[in-house]
Design goal:
The complex is a heterodimer of chains A (315) and B (457). Chain A is an all-alpha fold. Chain A is built from 15 helices and 2 strands. In chain A, a hairpin with a 7-residue loop joins β1 and β2. Chain B has 2 domains: 201 residues, Periplasmic binding protein-like II (D-Maltodextrin-Binding Protein, domain 2); 163 residues, 3-Layer(aba) Sandwich (D-Maltodextrin-Binding Protein, domain 2), CATH 3.40.190.10. Chain B contains 18 helices and 13 strands. The chains are: A mainly alpha (315), B alpha/beta (457). The interface between A and B is large, with 37 and 47 residues.
């Protein structure tokens, strides 16, 4: 009996060890699969990011040796650099524009296009085309359109809109940022529309039928079926918009290069100028850290609001 | 199946690690070859010839062909024992990154003193003093150009050319309206009013694609208004920048922009190309631009008739002043394994007079600022007369001493950066002349204190 008990206990222990070993082996395998991607990510994303953080504490011209200056760059950012303030305000304006205009436009047009049965592909392609044109090309084309001597102003003058025809779209500091944002929006909203359209097509048609049986009109369908059905896409677009608004660079760089008189300066262009035109790579790194910090804060704020609004699942 | 997954995952991880190790090994091999081969930045060899790479700026197709004919081929022919190539760098940052990474071309064609100072400060370029003694460079160049190539009392670059700011006059427009070329501000101001009444832009100007083009304007106005002595004194910290004799030039420039005389109050919406087009098409009567613009006018607008002259007198008693500059600097990369041969190549470039003469006459190249070469030797040999006159004017101005100072050669780098970034704010009224000049004074003082202020001739 004792012997039997001892054998049973031994078998139980052995079985448990086997289970534990199996569990260990099983839990290692997924990590092995993601190891290659992690190593690549660590080398080309994590390490440079950490190096940016480290170099933000140095005075460095980007070519030679760096000198450790502690938080000197950050002190300068917050106490001396007036352009940083302008750049952050411009990024916030950019965010305010892009979190409303292209999303509302994209959503409304997606709703309309989703109702079209014949020729839907034509509209999808037409609205999406600007997105596949490079920023450099589109920026240059629109810069030419906004030229006061041979652009749209000439046309506006000819049709009698002389005050509009005298507008310096890219030369007036009060409107230059909005002119550039207009062009970026022209490029961007079609992409948002296609995202929404794709999401709308995933909403179960039975839900619409049920809503109609319950007597819902188009507006109610929209509010109670369509929008709840694409909440994850809305959350994704909002998060991306928030971060891209602070990382945007291309259209401003191509169309105004931050001018006139820093009126369209954004963080990314200011970072670029400091790193490569002013030979202040250390300072540019500190600006990058600031930019990343702002993005992170906005990211978490946006996620919190989305969760509260039911757009994302609570973890 | 599970076993297969395990094998695949282990294999994938192993392949990645091996490939990373291989990359490292390859880098080390290249480094070894570099160390052994006596070849700089260029880590490969063509046969047994050591490779020498010279950086250059991008050019259009015609410019590339001219460079090949009048620059690359002659150098290659002069140094047959070396595999010499001229490599285009589309942007300055790729050059910076390569040099910072321990590579880059052997000979660097840098933008000007502000670039040279940064590379010198980082010990990325070689001090040329010993070579200067060996080749006698100190007596070869115009003093102003040679002296402006020093940083921290060491010679780090050699001036690649000389240029100046001039005023271009569209003679078709002037003839049409019966206008005379002005010689003073007093003559220019009523003339510009008349031009505006006739819907002609007095001075074509645009900097939307390159904000820093404002340095063409402030270099001209400061030089013309202050005159050589006062501006030199200000740049050496002896006369305050806020003094009326210095700040007055900036005030005049800002006033003229605000009156619409310069750039039709729309310069931030106009590119440099538009600026030349407006002038050449007769929509503008005058243009303040560098001597480099002449070749663009000749090649792109052959039907436009124009002359260019030293900027007119901007303040009574100062006289006309011609702001000059060296157009860039040749430097030797500290990573180069062949600095001696690089110095030899530089010496060849500045001493082969036949090549230089042909390049100036046939390719409209800017002459090097060397004493031995006179533009007069090009007269009657097919050189465009207008270009000849420009260089003749420059030589005469240098001889007479009525030269001004372009910011990219003679201003402290930080002062120039500030001015380039903030002159538009001055035009648009969001910055006062006093604040602008006070800030410039701070940068000048700082540069004088740390020894980075350029030598002003």
């Amino acid at each position: 009996m004792n012997n039997n008990l001892g054998q049973t206990a031994l078998f139980a222990i052995m079985r448990n060890k086997k289970v534990i070993n199996n569990m260990k082996k099983t839990s290692i395998i997924p990590y092995l699969f993601i190891l290659p991607a992690f190593i690549i990510h660590f080398c080309i994303v994590t390490l440079p990011s950490l190096s940016t953080l480290a170099m933000s504490l140095f005075e460095w011209n980007g070519i030679g040796n760096a000198t450790f200056i502690g938080f000197g760059n950050f002190t300068e950012i917050f106490t001396e650099d007036n352009v940083v303030k302008i750049a952050i305000i411009n990024n916030l304006k950019w965010l305010a524009i892009f979190i409303t205009v292209p999303i509302i436009m994209g959503f409304i047009v997606a709703i309309i296009v989703s109702r079209i049965i014949k020729g839907q592909m034509f509209f999808r392609v037409v609205y999406f085309i600007p997105y596949v044109i490079s920023a450099a090309v589109a920026g240059k084309i629109f810069t030419a359109y906004m030229n006061p001597y041979y652009g749209i102003n000439v046309f506006l003058d000819k049709i009698g809109l002389t005050s509009l025809g005298d507008t310096l779209w890219l030369g007036n500091p009060k409107i230059a940022l909005y002119s550039v944002a207009f062009v970026d929006n022209w490029h961007w909203w079609g992409f948002v529309m296609v995202l929404f359209l794709g999401a709308l097509q995933q909403v179960d048609p039975v839900l619409y039928e049920a809503a109609r049986v319950d007597g819902a009109n188009r507006i109610r369908e929209l509010l109670h079926v369509s929008i709840p059905g694409i909440k994850p896409t809305i959350a994704f677009v909002l998060i991306m918009t928030v971060m891209w608004s602070f990382l945007t660079f291309d259209y401003v760089y191509v169309m105004t290069n931050g001018g006139p008189a820093n009126s369209t300066e954004i963080l990314a262009t200011w970072i670029y100028k400091n790193a490569f035109a002013k030979y202040r790579a250390g300072y540019a790194n500190a600006l990058c850290v600031l930019q990343s910090g702002i993005c992170l804060v906005f990211y978490f704020v946006q996620r919190y609001i989305s969760k509260k609004g039911g757009m994302e699942d609570e973890d | 199946m599970e076993r297969m997954r395990k094998v695949i995952s282990v294999l994938l991880a192993a392949i990645l690690i091996m490939s990373l190790a291989a990359c490292q090994s390859k880098t080390e091999t290249a480094k070894t070859a570099n160390d052994d081969g006596g070849n700089t930045s260029g880590e490969t060899k063509s046969g047994d010839k050591p490779k020498i790479v010279i950086s250059c700026y991008p050019a259009d197709e015609a410019g590339t062909l001219l460079r090949e004919e009048y620059y690359t081929k002659p150098i290659q022919a002069a140094f047959p024992d070396y595999d010499i190539s001229v490599e285009v760098f589309n942007d300055r940052q790729s050059l910076q990154v390569q040099v910072a990474g321990g590579g880059g071309p052997d000979i660097l064609d840098l933008d000007g003193l502000s670039d040279v100072v940064e590379f010198a400060r980082a010990d990325r370029i070689v001090a040329l003093d010993d070579y200067a003694v060996k080749y006698g460079w100190d007596n070869m160049f115009y003093d102003w150009a040679y002296d402006s190539s020093f940083y921290n009392k060491k010679l780090y670059s050699l001036p690649t050319g000389y240029e100046s700011m001039v005023i271009y006059y569209n003679t078709d427009v002037f003839d049409k309206y019966g206008w005379e070329i002005p010689t003073t501000v007093a003559e220019a101001e009523p003339l510009m009013e008349d031009m505006m009444k006739k819907d002609i832009i007095p001075f074509s100007f645009g900097n939307s694609n390159y904000v820093g083009a404002v340095d063409w304007l402030y270099s001209t106005f400061m030089s013309g208004y202050s005159g050589p002595k006062v501006l030199k004194s200000a740049l050496e910290g002896k006369t305050p920048m806020t003094d009326e004799t210095v700040a007055g030039g900036i005030q005049l420039m800002a006033d003229w922009w605000q009156k619409g005389y310069i750039g039709d109050k729309a310069s931030q919406s106009i590119t440099n190309d538009d600026m030349i087009a407006l002038f050449a098409q007769g929509k503008a009567a005058m243009m303040i631009d560098g001597t480099w613009a002449a070749s663009s006018l000749i090649s792109s607008y052959p039907d436009c008739n124009w002359v260019c002259e030293t900027p007119f007198e901007m303040r009574e008693g100062v006289g006309p002043v011609l702001p000059i500059a060296s157009s860039g600097g040749f430097a030797i990369n500290a990573n180069s394994k062949n600095p001696d041969i690089c110095a030899d190549i530089l010496n060849y470039l500045f001493t082969d007079m036949d090549r230089m003469e042909k390049a100036v006459i046939e390719a409209s190249y800017c002459p090097y600022p060397i004493k031995k070469f006179s533009i007069e030797q090009c007269q009657g040999k097919g050189m465009d007369e207008r270009l000849y006159n420009i260089y003749k004017t420059m030589e005469e101005a240098m001889a007479a001493g009525n030269i001004g100072y372009c910011s990219w050669t003679f201003f402290p780098a930080d002062a120039r950066t500030y001015m380039n970034e903030n002159t538009d704010a001055l035009f648009l009224g969001s910055l006062t002349v006093e604040d602008y000049m006070t800030k410039i004074q701070e940068f000048v003082d700082a540069a004088l204190a740390d020894g980075t202020a350029p030598t002003v001739p």
